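hey can u check if this looks right to u? its 273 residues, i copy pasted from the old doc so theres a chance i mangled smth
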Amino acid sequence: MTNGEHIREEALELLAVGGLPDGDSAAIQAHVSECHECASRLAESRGGAALLAFATKPETPAGTIKAELLARIRASREREEHFAWPLRPKTISGSEVAEYVTSRKTGNWLKWILVPAAVALALVSLALSWQNRRVSQALAKQRQATQALLSEREGTNKLVGLLAAGDTVTVKLAPASETIGSGVVKYNGRMGMVVYSAQLPAAPAGKSYQMWLVPVSGTPINAGVMEKGAHALGSVWIAEVPVNTEARAFAVTLEPAGGMPQPTGPKVLVGAS
């Protein structure tokens, strides 16, 4: 069964395909668990067997296959005993030598076929994985672009509806104190929508302009930060506020970047409703 201190190639190949009796299989498994080289060769044989299983059409084996495999194992053992000189010297015929050499060549031939096949399969798998990632990334970008278009269309429809409504009011925004700038607000309390635009200098670093609806009663209502985002259509911003809110005024303040829940900074634009 062994050649020197290692398991013969034929025995490993039979173990890989489940063709060894339980007793022999257990003995080889015990050796492989302690021998790195034999463990590596067994893994290679199992990989080759798996590739062959995928590459060939399944067929029902002949009923005599197990008996033939066992006969081959017995023959291999006998050949091994012949070549175990000088421990047990025996007379070896020329036909036995030729048969042994042929079996070794067959194992080497199988290894040279399976190793490149395994490499090719790995390369194909990597190529498919890379292609799948590219397709997934392209689909994700397409979904993002579609969502952006849908959001823009929704905002445009809301803007058109507000401008066409007869109960929409217009409020002009003027500078507060020494601020330079102007703006205009379109507000419809029934729809709970505020649409506005403004001409202002760039906000200082770490700051943002923020629009507020000042109701007749209660605290100011946030109507959005004047930056590019989901509620912006170019330089026009759309905000939703509680419906039927009676507005007393609108104001723009300078707040920390990203805005605040309530105004904390100086007013830059103000307009009475």
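Residues 84-92 have pLDDT under 50 and may be disordered.
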